[in-house]
Amino acid sequence: MANEYIEHKLALLPDMPGCYLMKNINGKIIYVGKAKNLKNRVRSYFKSSHEGKTARLVSEIADFEYIVVSSDKEAFLLEITLIQKHRPYFNIKLKQGNGGYPYIKITNERDPQIKIVNTLLKDGGFYFGPYPNVYAADETVNFLQKVYPLRRCNGFQNRPCLYYHMGQCLGACFKVVPEEAYAKQIKRIKSFLNGNVAHAKQMLTARMEKAASKMEYERAAEIRDLIKYIEITVEKQKIISNDNTPRDIFNYYMDKGWLSIQVFFIRQSRLMKREKRLFPIIDDPEEEMVSFISQFYKQKNQILPKEILVPKSLPTDVISHVVEDVPVRTPQRGQKRDLLEMAGKNAKMVLEEKFRLLELDESKTTGAMKELTDAMGIAPGHKIEAFDHSHIQGADLVSAMVVFVDGQPNKNLYRKYKLRTVHHADEAASTKEVIRRRYTRLLKEHAEMPDLILMDGGTIQMNAVKDVLVNELGLDIPVGGMVKNTHHQTADLLFGNHDTPLQLNPKSQGFYLLQRIQDEVHRFAITYHRKVHTKNSLSSRLDSIAGVGPKTRNKLLRKFGSLRKISNASIADLRKLGISETVAQTIKFSLSKIDEERKVTNYQDKKLTH
User: What HAMAP family would the database entry show (predicted)?
Assistant: First the structure.
């Protein structure tokens, strides 16, 4: 079941060929696929029922992105490259035994061979591939060895080898084969593997028909399958030669003050990588692009290509000058122009997707806010403030507040609180302190009050909020309680004099907004608590070490930040902070003793997520 964010992105998918990259909640790419029609293919993951591996994949998808190309063939090539680059978990079954993808190689030697290899080397050989279909690659090599033989034996042995008698070796086993003979065959093989397979297919077709006419149906079927494998393998590949020019392609699209940039990295005759940028601009796009390209190549470890391609609107001479005189050109025809246009098309689609997602989000979240207020029977509002507490067994108590305006989080208004008057786990007391501090301050500053206050919790927290607001501060602000089910997921909203569940529709926009608010305030509180707990825990442990006073402790905290890093530091590293040899040795010895205690602390920290 797709969430709201995914639903919005699915609605914006284009009816075009391309590749899609599925990501998990951490933004890691977990699957790469290709599609003749991105809209139909990607939607099928979320709109159909699945089993096994696909069901597991869908359950882990939190986001996706896509790259539009011009044809299914280009999508096939790009898919291979992206799988090689990102090594997605759910694509692992495409790998060959040792984790690589096979290539067909013509060796660079006096008597060359054609073979399947797993590594691309700069050895002067010619490489074709890579091939995700290992069987098809193997069949193609077998075919080439029969039709365009080179050397298939181990070399000179003073007598013809078996393959020579079978017509699959030029005879290096017993004679000197002219280099011209090899060159002629290599030219045919290159042409074939580069996709020029018409002649070979005609020859095979004739053999298949001849075998069928002789009622040699098994032989005819073998030839038919061989043609199929060749089509799968050869017609969707391009040569990778060692002298191909590395090129970077820049194109852009601008609308409504936003600039969308696409950078394509062409290496080994294929699109190896894509980067995208999206940001608001004030100057005209041409000036921004020249500045962007200049800064792009000043990044650390950014290697200059041999050629840069840009649209005609950009000054090629100026860009060439700022990137150390690398040739900058605008292609007028052919594949280079097609790639440049493809980059521009992707830039436009990324920006248009952003605008349409914003429109969808604004319309949905504004409506969601009204859904909530209507369900609660209160006046329509715009601003919600939500609170949550966090602690470990009553220690390191903190609270956090998040703010949503018209259904959107406003992180500039978030606040964190270290509790001052509560020193043990007491939900009511913790709630009263943070509510008292927050709204006493707003009253003093004559600041705007929220239209609704939400607590992550039930009746205890809600009554504590109402007590402070009404009996201490004289405020009349609606208060709701966000409750979770046994699976720690948002279940409902409590409201009213008797804290009654409103039984919101879990598929409604209002429920979706409530879920986002509860998840966000919990995330913010947990994140803050981890920092406080880690700092307090680390400080207390360092204070227990003989010879470590406040100054030494603070030095260690600033430099290393964790017990593990301090423990892994050498005596020399500690001495660099001005710590004596004796104290440094004491620190190392003491930390080894409390390693078990640290494991217990880590276990307790994990309980925060449950």
Answer: UvrC (MF_00203)
